[in-house]
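Hello,

I think I submitted the fe (ii) ion job twice by accident. Can you confirm which output corresponds to this input? Input:
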Amino acid sequence: MQNTHEIAPGLHWVGGNERRLQRFENLFPLRFGVAYNSYLIVDEKTCLLDTVDSSISQLFIDNVEFVLGGRDLDYLVVNHMEPDHCGNIETIIRRYPNVKFIGNAKTFQFFEQFYRFDASKNYKIVKDLEELDLGSRKLRFYTAPMVHWPEVMMTLDFTNHILFSSDAYGTFGAHNGTYFADEMEYRRDYLDEARRYYSNIVGKFGIPVQSIMKKLSNEVIDMICPLHGPMYRNEELALILDKYEKWSKYIPETKSALIIYATMYNNTESVADKLATRLGQLGVRDMRVYDVSEFDPSYLVSEAWKYSHIVIATPTYNSNVFYKIYNLLHELTSLNLQSRKFSFIVNSSWGGQTLEQLQALVEKMKNIEIIGEPVLIKSTLKDENIEAIDNLAKAISESIHKS
Ligand SMILES: Cc1cc2nc3c(=O)[nH]c(=O)nc-3n(C[C@H](O)[C@H](O)[C@H](O)COP(=O)(O)O)c2cc1C
Ligand SMILES: [Fe+2]
Ligand SMILES: [Fe+2]
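Support: Only one job matched these inputs. Its output is below.
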């Protein structure tokens, strides 16, 4: 049974929701599922933009058949060859053997790497900025390498000013009956998940995101249709473009402190809380304090993308940084996080190289500043540590207030 929605005249959403999947890419926990978007244009020619994950194949095929209403499919544009979107290319080509399969040279290289099915007679290779006439509207293809895979393209319907943006501007979270960000409490219900999606999946590729945004900057874009989550127009379109500008340039959205601690016996936690209270007393607002063991790292990566100041508090563990903190900092480095201000709290009972290791991990990031003197605790917080905490709080709050 189909479930489709005409999001603009002649443009149909033919994707589906997946609410059973525990972890996207078998890695990122999903709280509200995920949507795989596919779009079908019905014009003088019919054109399907991307397919969906194999988990929702039956629904997808029903959707496409329903919207086509007995017509043949003329084109299948594959903007992205990741399996969550190309899981039904073979089925589509088998059902519509005359279809022209549109991609760039890398698209077909990946198709042949992932699948045994020979679709070479359907291939239509397009180059950057090549155009396709569908009748009342025309499409233009933009290669967008490394946003976040090498073969990625975006497709612009420049007659109607609609951008099919591939994974860019996508978010975790299934649809809830309405499809545009302006038809829901997007800022409350999806924005944090859009940031988590961006920072963890696309975050490393700020420069490629900047280049495609620049390449498209002369085009009028009234609507963005991503491969996951809601579609954007009006004010929510302006919002997500502004967020992408900040996220891809590693510009923090919130001038405040994100405090991430590890603890085994709560002593380091109490130091983190003490620092947070002091910062609050000094006028810092909108802080967040997280136990690294309680949250999937993807949430902490997302918060690190948002906050200007990051305080890391860690016990010493087998002479090292507590390994969940180590992993988080390693991941932030690998995702290219930059332009942040870090401060450190280290707890040790007999010794180790913890502070040196923290500094070495953070120094790998670009444009990093260390704020204040690290606070060094011996097992538990004592009166003699208060001055050091106060000094660190002052240094952080001054830095927040002047930035
Ligand atoms: C498995 C384990 C290994 C530890 N290794 C070290 C170490 O190498 N050096 C050290 O100074 N403290 C070590 N500690 C002690 C912790 O640093 C101690 O738990 C901490 O000072 C107290 O902070 P917490 O209550 O926040 O866990 C270790 C503790 C555990 C449980
Ligand atoms: Fe992808
Ligand atoms: Fe995707």
